[in-house]
Automatic annotation (TrEMBL):
Biological process, per Gene Ontology: heme biosynthetic process
Lineage of the species this protein comes from: Eukaryota, Fungi, Dikarya, Ascomycota, Pezizomycotina
Full protein name: Porphobilinogen deaminase
GO-annotated cellular components: cytoplasm
Catalysed reactions listed for this entry: 4 porphobilinogen + H2O = hydroxymethylbilane + 4 NH4(+)
Function per UniProt: Tetrapolymerization of the monopyrrole PBG into the hydroxymethylbilane pre-uroporphyrinogen in several discrete steps.
Keywords noted in UniProt: Heme biosynthesis, Porphyrin biosynthesis, Transferase
EC code: 2.5.1.61
Metabolic or biological pathway: Porphyrin-containing compound metabolism; protoporphyrin-IX biosynthesis; coproporphyrinogen-III from 5-aminolevulinate: step 2/4
Length: 392
């Protein structure tokens, strides 16, 4: 017998031939056996599969460092990933490194007024590229559709409820957006929510509200608060065990509100060359979620709107009349004043990353044909004018 790190090699002792096949067993996270045959002393060894082989090679590190933001929600989501990795790969140690990003440090500027799209991710990506962290956990809706050239997203874990929700100030009786009185103030810094509210509920006013979930709820409930309600992502409230604050779930059926690309999903980012972590993430990934968000992000990337585009989506897996599984995507682009709108609903067979990306491109082209290109062009022109006036 011969011991090699990660392998066990033994000769078939039932054969008297000194050149008889060697039995080779991989001792990685998965175990498999192959036969090495050698017909002549000088020939090259040949590996013939003896059992199906699936193996994750040992990582070069004993400890995997996961980077994230410092907020309570970010840390909770990071530990969801950590726990899944630890369960699948208990042989490694895991630690969390948290850091505030530009988006955390500046809570006064409205999100739509930032000139960069990576205000939640840049500092952490720099640490990962530098090797100080191995993987980063984001809220996927905060991740730009174009990443640094040396980084990529791994598979997504199962998605939380992706819808927006209405949260009414404590003590007020309203149960839905349709009940909110004219002139009431809705808190949100999202250009997407602002545009959809302007179209569906033009009698309501919108005012910026920034900060983490706890901060926004405190601003809402304060005695001198100007807000009657705020619009938040359901996923954050559910993960923080704040479901009791949800007044109404918002979707295409009951309010006409579509959610942000990637909302409710985790973005798990790694270095492109880290094939080991890619293989580890493959084992905890959720295919339906991964394909859904790939299609959504492909749509947004094709429109070149980035995180600040007033693009709403709603994806769901359905069975068509023939019984085949398909991905349905509803999407909408609304002008900031709510007066113009482009919307489409399409279905497609999506069974690979490539077909998911292609579906997103198809939906984007359909939106442009319905008028989205003109809406986005006006928004970009206005942002350019604002940038010039600020510079002057």
């Amino acid at each position: 017998d011969l011991e090699v790190p990660g392998l066990h090699v033994s000769r078939d002792r039932s054969s008297p031939n000194p050149l008889s096949p060697l039995r080779l067993t991989f001792l990685g996270s998965y175990t498999s056996t192959c036969i090495i045959s050698n017909t002549e002393p000088s020939s090259i060894l040949r590996l013939t599969p003896y059992l199906p082989l699936k193996m994750v090679t040992p990582a070069p590190k004993k400890t995997i460092t996961i980077g994230t933001r410092k907020s309570k929600l970010a840390l909770l989501q990071t530990h969801m990933v950590l726990d899944a990795l630890k369960k699948a790969f208990p042989q490694y140690e895991y630690k969390v490194f948290s850091k505030e990003t530009a988006g955390d440090l500046n809570t006064t500027i409205a999100l739509r007024d930032f000139t960069t799209k990576n205000l939640w991710t840049e500092e952490l990506e720099e640490l990962m590229i530098d090797g100080q962290v191995d993987v980063i956990v984001h809220s996927l809706k905060d991740v730009p559709t174009t990443l640094p050239s040396s980084c990529k997203l791994g598979p997504s874990m199962p998605r939380e409820d992706s819808r927006d929700v209405l949260v009414v100030k404590q003590g007020l009786p309203y149960k839905s957006l349709s009940e909110i009185p004219a002139g009431s103030v809705v808190g949100t810094s999202s250009i997407r929510r602002t545009a959809q509210l302007a179209r569906k509920y033009p009698h309501l006013k919108v005012q910026d509200v920034r900060g983490n979930i706890g901060t926004r709820l405190s601003k809402l409930d304060a005695e001198d608060s100007p807000y009657t309600c705020v619009i938040l992502a359901a996923a954050g409230l559910l993960r923080l065990d704040l479901a009791d604050r949800i007044t109404q779930y918002l979707d295409s059926k009951n309010s006409g509100m579509l959610y942000a690309v990637g909302q409710g999903a985790l973005g798990i980012e790694i270095r492109k060359e880290d094939t080991h972590l890619q293989a580890m993430l493959d084992t905890i990934g959720h295919q339906d979620t991964t394909f859904s968000v790939l299609a959504e992000r492909s749509l947004l990337r094709t429109l070149e709107g980035g995180c600040s585009a007033p693009l709403g989506v709603e994806t769901e897996w359905i069975q068509n009349a023939q019984g085949s599984k398909q991905l349905r995507m509803r999407s909408v682009v609304v002008s900031v004043d709510g007066k113009e709108c482009a919307q489409v609903e399409l279905e497609a067979d999506v069974n690979s990353a490539e077909s998911a990306e292609a579906f997103g491109i198809t939906v984007a082209k359909a939106l442009v044909a319905d008028g989205a290109g003109g809406i986005l062009e006006v928004i970009q022109q206005n942002k350019t004018k604002e940038s010039v006036s600020t510079a002057v």
